[in-house]
Amino acid sequence: MKFSKFIFIFLLLPLFLSGCTLDQTTKVEEVRTYPSGIFKTINNGQVWDSKSFVEKTQNRIVSISDSLVYDIGFSPINSDMVVATRNNGIYYTKTKGEQWSPLFNIGKDVMAYSFDSTSPSSYYVGYQNKLYKTDDYGANWRIVYTDPDSTIVSVRADYLKPTNIYIFFADGRILKTEDGSSFMVIYNFANIPQDPAKVKHNYSVDKANPLGIRSVYFFKKSTDSFYVVTNGGDLYFTNNGGIGFTLIDLINNKISGTVRFITFYPGAISSFILVTDDGIYKTFDGGANFEPINILTSRNKNVTALVISPKNDNIFYYALGNLIYRTSNGGLTWNTMPSPVTRTISTLKIDPENPNTIYLGSDIDLRMVENANNQNLFCDLFGILFPQFCKTTN
After folding, report:
1. Which pTM value belongs to this model?
2. Residue 42 and residue 49: Cα distance in Å, rounded?
3. Inter-residue long-range contacts of 374-377, CB under 8 Å, 24+ positions, other chains counted
4. Which stretch of DSSP H or E encloses residue 63?
5. Which helix (H) or strand (E) holds 214?
6. What is the DSSP letter of 387?
7. Interval 45-55: pLDDT, tens
8. Burial level of 30, CB count in 10 A (0-12/13-18/19+)?
9. In this structure, how many other beta carbons lie within 10 angstroms of the beta carbon of residue 19?
10. Terminus of the chain with fewer CB atoms < 10 Å: N or C?
């Protein structure tokens, strides 16, 4: 029996060591050439450290350095953080990024999640057409709501009224519950009367569903007021919990391009920076008036992340590709900052309690993911026999 196992391993070994499927030297070089995952700085971006470690097994180190990071979120009630990724689900950390643990691995391409202020171990996750909840850091999940028609794009539990939960759907509907379980439709963007003089649909984004919901932006803890970006590139605002919305007039403000995202100034929900694929703009009156911000890459279509200091609204950072830019005077002048990655930066977040601490999430190189998967399979099968191929560092 032992002899048969040895023959089996001997026959399979050339498949893994061949140049077509596994070249360990090349794989390690690619991981180093295309760093990605989560990075952290504690000195305003002067020095960055990788913070993607999950665990160390017998044969290899497990990390989320092969992940495309969608978002990084901070718990409103403790120091926990959450990372939403495309290819590895959702992870959380209690140690400010020193070690991550799986939170939601039912699905991989997950962007919709919310903290629950009733308990540090409780979270909501929207995946496909279902809303899930856990009360034990993801050890067990239960389905709270299943929708028959559409996909969930965003979820929010009110931090001040935790039984008030909102679900936002790709078809334009908003559902809400005030008891934590009984959901009802409170708004549907598909039913909005259109004003051709103000509505600026970008049909290259979504020709079939321009009034579907693409993203939602809340200011701090309350869900009474928030902004919604539709698939057509329109920006809407509500101050009554989603019962009614006002269209932000971008056309008369001479703002062209599709809305990518917004980032709030720390002072008020009416003050934010709007990022489009044709430039960035600031407003201090809820979008009644906008002023362009001149950046080093002015009117470039690839700004992927922007974050404002929670302690000083003259300091903010933006990312374009793998480059980082910083201003300390509200955008009058800019400095280029060191970048720890060669891939596209997908998100920047500043620690709300310590503005010197910044977290960065990046895109991935698909070759790195494929090679990492090959290496993991090899190490799982032959790590004991060939440890020199599995000495990977985080």
Report:
1. 0.80
2. 9
3. 374/16, 374/21, 374/22, 374/27, 375/22, 375/24, 375/27, 375/60, 376/60, 377/16
4. strand 61-63
5. strand 213-218
6. G
7. 999 999 999 99
8. middle
9. 7
10. N
DSSP-derived 3-state class of residue 20: coil
d(Cα 31, Cα 376) in Å, to the nearest integer?
13
- Both structure tokens of 205: 């984004």
Amino acid identity, position 113: Y
Q: Phi and psi (nearest 5°) for 7?
A: -60, -40
Q: What angle do CA 69, 220, 141 make, to 5 degrees?
A: 55
The C-alpha atoms of residue 146 and residue 131 are separated, in whole angstroms, by: 6
What is the helix, strand, coil percentage profile of the chain, to 5? 10, 35, 55
Look at the chain and count its residues. Answer: 394
361 forms beta bridges with: 38, 347
Q: What is the DSSP secondary-structure string of 241-297?
A: TTSS-EE---TTTT--S-EEEEEE-SS-TT-EEEEETTEEEEESSTTSS-EE---TT
Report the C-alpha gap between 348 and 360 in whole angstroms: 5
Q: What is the DSSP string of 300-314?
A: -TTEEEEEE-SS-TT
Listed in sequence order, the residues at least 6 apart from 149 whose beta carbon sits closer than 8 Å to its beta carbon are 129, 169, 171
In order, the DSSP letters of 29-86 are HHHHHS--SEEEESSTTSS-EE--EEEE-SS-EEESTT--EEEEEE-SSSS-EEEEES
From the number of C-beta atoms within 10 Å of its C-beta (0-12, 13-18, 19+), residue 332 rates as exposed
Mean pLDDT estimate for the chain:
81
Show the tokens assigned to 220: 């701090």
365 C-beta neighbours (distance < 10 Å), count: 20
Q: Which of 63-67, 119-123, 219-223 shows the lowest per-residue confidence on average (mean pLDDT)? A: 219-223
DSSP track, 148-186? SS--EEEEEE-SSSTT-EEEEETTSEEEEESSSS--EEE
Q: pLDDT tens-digit profile of 88-143? A: 889 999 999 999 999 998 867 888 999 998 999 999 999 999 999 999 999 999 99
Crossing angle of helices 2-17 and 366-382, rounded to 10°: 160
